[in-house]
Amino acid sequence: MIRGASLLRIAAAIGAMAALVGAAAPQGLTRAEIPSPPGENHGAAIAQLKSGALLACWYSGAHEEDHSVRILCSRGDAAGASWSAPWTAVAPGDQAVGAAAPNKSLGNVTLTVARGGRVWMIHGVIQSRPLPIVGETCRNWACGRIDARASDDEGRTWSRASRLVDLEGALPRAEPKPTAGAYLVPFYEETAQRSAVALVSLADGDAKVRAVWPLDGAKLIQPALVEQNDGRFRAFFRDQQRQGVYTAQFDPRTGAWSDLTQTSLPNPGAPVDAFSDGEGRFVVIYNPSNAVRDVLALARSTDGIHFTLGCDLSAPGDTPAAYPSIIRGRDGDWRAVFSADGKGRISFVRFDNVWLAKCFGENG
Questions:
Q1: What CATH number does residue 224 fall under?
Q2: Mean of the pLDDT values across residues 131-137?
Q3: Bridge partner list, 195
Q4: Alpha-carbon distance 3 to 40, whole Å?
Q5: Which terminus of the chain is more solvent-facing, meaning fewer CB atoms within 10 Å of its CB: N or C?
Q6: Residue 273 within any structural domain of the chain
Q7: In this predicted model, what pLDDT tens digit does every residue of 26-62 receive, in sequence order?
Q8: Are the CB atoms for 285 and 296 separated by under 8 Å?
Q9: From the centroid of its chain, how far is CA 330?
Q10: Is the previous residue joined to 320 through a cis bond, with omega within 30 degrees of 0?
């Protein structure tokens, strides 16, 4: 039997999808909804597979931090116009190799495809630490940990997880970035409210941390990285104080961080994602408010600090919209997923250079 709340959520999702179908999409922009079950669907990632198809994975359950949470994946065509029914990639109660107990819950997902086509999933975990009489002592992200697992069949099946980052409260958020034969994995510590970058090798079916470089002295989390032409990466951060998006530069050759700078963008205590437009400019996907997550929009900058505002990326039926993850496909178009309808479902959007130029008032 479908309960009333579930029925309302399904009806709302159908209405939102109908609104998207009924509205004519601008040239160069494609929208789709990724099938997801009732409940909370959040923390999604996207990757383009060796075959050209798309893979999206996210965590789903009755509510965030619940024992029911699992990681789901869905497969889309290269354009992202159609998506498969989701399947369970990581079930509730998963236990990594060497872990003392099964997980209490699961969290944010990131994906990356290695050169040979192997898909890596790096995701958050809430560890379980039960005590006699007291019961479970880990109830939230303060007991976070980061696990890693691989797939050799484009995400259909996954290896058993290995523990990747065991720092207390550690959680991933944005896409790992390749560098010098390894990967930079941006992450944060929920307990310390601190961002960091880990240098991770992904070889021979094993994920290993080779170095960790924390950004000390600032309560900023969920870093997203964009590679610069000089070999450094510019990071953009979520601000828990809701003052604005902050940025710093990171050099993987030395492990050094630059000084932090507040950008001209607001931030309602929500993550951003960012990319280069191919012309040397940074583009950030963000919530244009210090108070609410109603809309996801684009802003562009030549220096990573002072931004020109563009257009909305989310559609009216997506509100509230948050937690964007974006990649650039092999055809040059960008593909993004984000949480829509207040974590009720996962939305997909694809856009090209023509649409991006018009978003910023250019003729394209």
A1: 2.120.10.10
A2: 92
A3: 188, 215
A4: 15
A5: N
A6: yes
A7: 789 999 999 999 999 999 999 999 999 999 999 999 9
A8: yes
A9: 20
A10: yes
